[in-house]
Write a structure and sequence with these properties.
Layout lengths: L1 H12 L9 H22 L3 H20 L3 H21 L1 H13 L2 H5 L13 H16 L4 E5 L6 H4 L3 E6 L2 H8 L9 E5 L2 E7 L15 H12 L3 E5 L6 E5 L2 E5 L2 H12 L1 H17 L1
Parallel strand pairs: 1-3
Antiparallel strand pairs: 1-5, 2-4, 3-4, 5-6, 6-7
Helix pairs in contact: 7-9, 7-11
């Protein structure tokens, strides 16, 4: 106790005064910390995370300009900041709407407590991947067009809400029936999360990339479009040629056969689950 008293007296002697922290102050700190954690966790699972990194880069640039006293740049920044905030809100409008919608549905306590009710996409099982590959191969032979979006880390709720909820186990029969021509659900995309088909007939944003081949149709541009805005992987079956393709990270790749598709999906979709299984087995080994 004497040590703390001396420390406080020393701080007072150099002009630093400390006030007594009451329980209300501690409560405010906890609430602010919780809100910041929740906002950052939400942003990391949406397109807003990339924008946040861009804003940080701009802030660093302006801080450097302030240190170097670049008055013209600072004057321009001060005059456009209000318009930039409005533009940022317009750009993030879909993410903000989705975040507020999830806020009313989500168990906030369970999302931050380990072992709580927070659901996490644990990856795809080999059985699910096998069913997807089987469906795509058979649809390719029959030249049945298909668009299958596989969720990874970022939530696809904003696209799921544009379609019809399914919530069914992934099977080749279900996927083939959905994309069968002249059926109510064949138009649009199917979204798969984990081992469940969550929605069908979903609308996806079209890519504006000028590097894409002019031969690619709407289905392929939609696949690239959603891969530009999220980390999802999309499998496409061409209705004209029956060719299989995968869109990821704003680019599209042609797949030669079902075996190559299976190997690629295993490498991309099961990596996270494999890491989790490895960590779990390691903990069990240590406990033994």
């Amino acid at each position: 106790m004497e040590f703390f008293t001396r420390a406080i007296n020393y701080l007072k002697s150099i002009g630093i005064y400390m006030t007594t922290i009451q329980w209300r102050d501690a409560l405010e700190i906890l609430i602010i910390a919780f809100l910041l954690y929740y906002i950052l966790a939400w942003m990391k699972r949406t397109h807003a995370w990339s924008l946040l990194k861009g804003i940080i880069m701009i802030a660093i640039f302006l801080l450097t300009a302030s240190i170097l006293k670049l008055d013209t740049i600072l004057w321009i920044a001060q005059n456009v900041v209000n318009y930039a905030i409005i533009a940022l809100l317009l750009v993030l409008q879909p993410e903000l709407r989705m975040g507020l919608d999830n806020l009313g549905k989500k168990n906030l306590i369970g999302s931050i407590i380990p072992g709580g009710m927070h659901h996490e996409n644990e990856g795809f099982s080999e059985e699910t991947i096998a069913e997807i590959v089987k469906a795509c191969t058979e649809m390719g032979k029959a030249k049945t067009g298909a668009l299958i979006v596989l969720q990874r880390n970022e939530m696809l709720t904003q696209y799921e809400t544009t379609g019809i909820a399914i919530d069914g186990k992934v099977t080749s029969g279900l996927l083939i029936n959905i994309f069968e021509k002249n059926t109510p659900l064949h138009d649009g995309a199917v979204i798969i999360s984990g081992n469940r088909v969550t929605a069908a007939t979903c609308y996806l944003p079209l890519s504006d990339s000028m590097t894409l081949s002019k031969e690619l149709g709407t289905r392929h541009r939609a696949a690239v479009g959603v891969s530009e805005k999220t980390d999802a992987i999309t499998v496409i079956v061409s209705e004209e040629t029956g060719r299989l393709s995968i869109a990821m990270g704003g680019s599209i790749e042609t797949i030669s056969d079902g075996e190559q598709l299976r190997q690629k999906l295993i490498r991309l979709m099961m990596r996270k689950a494999a890491k989790r299984t490895h960590k779990k087995s390691k903990k069990e080994t240590v406990s033994e």
